[in-house]
Predict the structure.
Amino acid sequence: MTKKKALITGITGMVGSHLADFLLKNTDWEIYGMCRWRSPLDNIAHLIDDINAKKRVHLVYGDLRDTMSLDNVVKSVVPDYVFHLAAQSYPKTSFDAPLDTLDTNIQGTARVLEALKKYAPKAIIHVCASSEVFGRVSKEKLAQMNGMINEECTFHPASPYAISKVGTDLIGRYYAQAFGMTVMTTRMFTHTGPRRGDVFAESTFAKQIAMIEAGLIPPVLKVGNLDSLRTFADVRDAVRAYYMLLTVNPIPGEYYNIGGAYTCKVGDMLNFLLSLSPMKDKIKIEVDPERLRPIDADLQIPDTSKFNKHTGWKPEIPFEKTMTDLLNYWRERVKHGEKFLQR
């Protein structure tokens, strides 16, 4: 019997690399990871031997802004399952590069789905949007939803990135409804853990703590808005959710909130990371204006009951383990002598 094939766009990212790990451990599928020729391979370094040996993991080269490359990827792989994770995923960067963000995320998703429509129309497809589509939800609106954001909450994107993910979300549902493709979209709330990019708050905090501990920078930790409320999930729980999305009675055109169960202010998350450090009493906190967004999505509390009821998924990894693993990830990188931008 022919093995199933999964295509992960953005395999070199935090989520894509953890998803590859999960699928290798929990399925017998062949894994095809799409990346650009210049994509950093740090997050999949542990898979390089298997990639070289063509042992269940294969890299295919494609770019969301190059239609021909996407056609070639889908035509050569003909995947059974598709996890479309690739994106310009940094909200703050999107303020500086809005057109790049919109093209990559909106038109890029359309290009991926068009290639799948032509060459793999029976594929079961996950399109990854974001909780950022909901943007700044007022306290009054939250009260109407019992304090949590559900799937029917009005979109109010607060960055070019969030706008691009509104487009991503709607395009995914359009292809399901218009062409009968099995496409589901997700609005994943904050998810983090090892391999998280250092442009995100919790990861830059952990990186700075690790660098301070190693004496590489002064004991001053630079922060942005510490008052935003976030609900944290572990990336390893997130990829398990994505697998269940495509394998537990997938319903074309459906859309789901997915997220963790631990909610706190960004400042509380920082305090927990600091509590793990022997330098905690010597580190000063300093607000860096460059780390502040023009508009912030500051009340991000998800109602995930729709997805939980449909699949039985629930988060399993506690916040404390997620943050401890993230800090240790940066400690290891610092220990190995890597050089980092101070951001």
